[in-house]
């Protein structure tokens, strides 16, 4: 197989003369720099994707894919049962759960915490994946009229409350009595504790039976909303738009992406900034490629002049050094891409092995909700990393190639 003349000369120039091994060393360091930069980018982006996936899964475990709420803020859905029957005929809806919720305070042993009190029907909890998050007790223990309550793990620890303890739930809505206007309160028995893994829910959420919540908030007929679980969580905006179009102003559908848009936008921004920062590693390696090619141009000026006198055109001289730089960059990208993909795919197992060998935990499970480093390799990210790396390596070859093409044979051979 015959390679083009310019590529053969460029590959030959990668092997410097014995008297100038420093150029070969710079070439090798450039290749290793590109390799490490590409590998680091792929691994870090995969780890950030893994954290995003974990957080999204935990959030979706406690929130609805689509919330169907009253049209008026603070109102209730009075005829919610007929609405539930209509929504069940929607093709993408897999489960529906009514819910009563409101703000309250919980008091136990002198400790006070504000919470979001949510009343659910345990039999319809498939629309709320809370049963899988229970660490103590069972969700089915929330029987109507028993005034049992399930607390988030962080909330239970803050209140120093455990299963079987009595807590006082206080509503901010006052009630008029002969003694004056007093806050309404009710004693509940702790029936269980759940851990979702996000502070928003574990430290500020309590769950009771829907009938008990309706009595506590004085909502005998209506509910605060309906939680919809879809066959695909990412279809929530499309489903919500269709429901709003058919609602005629009677209710409004809110997708989960809208409720948590700030949080996921912050994650996306952080990922982009991390990509830009880590790209500086590749940029440093690219400067090494520039230095390597400039040194080769200086070292090979006489050779370039001889080739020019033999009829090599300016464009071909540029191709020699562009090919040389591309070979260095492409080799680094291939090695870094392969190493990054392998490391990202096996990162959790590698970290567990290191933790066992070195006897330490990166994420202490008693402190952090995520005990392992998650990794989610996405091929579009790999493609973007390789494309950016390739573009930087190509740009790095242009100046040295242009400088080599400007070599004047007479000037270069004057003192040879």
Question: Overview of this structure, please?
Answer:
- The structure is a single chain.
- With 416 residues, the protein is an alpha+beta fold.
- The chain folds into 2 domains: 205 residues, no CATH class; 193 residues, no CATH class.
- Helices cover 53% and strands 20% of the residues.
- It contains 13 helices and 10 strands.
- It has a 6-stranded mixed β-barrel with strand order 2-3-8-5-7-6.
- β2 and β3 form a beta hairpin.
- α1 crosses α11 and α2 packs antiparallel against α12.
- The chain is elongated, with a radius of gyration of 32 Å.
- The relative contact order is 0.18.
- The model has no long low-confidence stretch (mean pLDDT 80).
Salient structural properties:
single chain, about 425 residues, alpha+beta, 2 domains, six-stranded mixed barrel, 13 helices
Order of helices and strands: HHEHEEEEHEEHEHEHEHHHHHH
Q: Main β-sheet: number of strands, strand sense, barrel status?
A: 6 strands, mixed, barrel
Percentage beta strand: 15-25%
Q: Share of helix among residues?
A: 40-55%
Radius of gyration: 32 Å
Mean pLDDT: 80
The count of helical stretches stands at 13
What is the general shape? Answer: elongated
């Amino acid at each position: 197989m015959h390679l083009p003349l310019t590529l053969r000369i460029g590959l030959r120039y990668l092997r410097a003369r014995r008297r100038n091994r420093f150029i070969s060393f710079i070439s090798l360091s450039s290749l290793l720099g590109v390799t490490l930069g590409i590998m680091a980018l792929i691994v870090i982006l995969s780890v950030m994707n893994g954290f995003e996936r974990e957080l999204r899964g935990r959030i979706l475990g406690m929130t609805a894919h689509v919330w169907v709420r009253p049209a008026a803020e603070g109102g209730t859905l009075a005829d919610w049962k007929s609405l539930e029957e209509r929504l069940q005929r929607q093709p993408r809806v897999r489960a529906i759960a009514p819910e009563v919720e409101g703000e309250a305070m919980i008091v136990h042993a002198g400790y006070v915490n504000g919470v979001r009190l949510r009343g659910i029907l345990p039999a319809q909890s498939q629309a709320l994946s809370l049963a899988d998050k229970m660490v103590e007790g069972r969700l089915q223990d929330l029987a109507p009229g028993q005034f049992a309550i399930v607390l988030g793990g962080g909330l239970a620890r803050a209140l120093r409350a455990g299963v079987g303890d009595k807590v006082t739930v206080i509503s901010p809505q006052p009630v008029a009595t002969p003694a004056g206007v007093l806050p309404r309160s009710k004693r509940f028995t702790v029936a269980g504790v759940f851990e979702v893994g996000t502070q928003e829910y574990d430290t500020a959420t309590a769950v009771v039976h829907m009938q008990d919540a309706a009595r506590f908030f004085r909502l005998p007929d209506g509910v605060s909303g309906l939680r919809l679980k879809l066959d695909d969580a990412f279809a929530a905006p499309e489903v919500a738009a269709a429901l709003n179009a058919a609602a005629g102003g009677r209710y409004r559908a809110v997708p989960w992406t809208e409720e948590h848009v700030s949080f996921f936008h912050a994650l996306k921004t952080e990922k982009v900034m991390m990509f830009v920062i880590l790209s500086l590693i590749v940029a440093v390696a690219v400067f090494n490629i520039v230095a390597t090619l400039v040194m080769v141009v200086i070292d090979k000026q006489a050779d370039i002049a001889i080739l020019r006198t033999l009829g090599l055109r300016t464009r071909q001289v540029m191709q020699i050094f562009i090919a040389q730089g591309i070979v260095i960059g492409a080799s680094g990208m291939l090695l870094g891409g392969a190493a990054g993909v392998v490391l990202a795919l096996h990162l959790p197992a590698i970290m567990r092995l290191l933790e066992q060998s070195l006897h330490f935990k990166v994420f202490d499970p008693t402190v952090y909700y995520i005990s392992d480093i998650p990794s989610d390799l996405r091929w579009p990210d790999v493609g973007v990393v390789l494309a950016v790396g390739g573009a930087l390596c190509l740009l790095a070859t242009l100046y040295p190639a242009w400088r080599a093409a400007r070599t004047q044979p007479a000037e270069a051979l004057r003192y040879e």
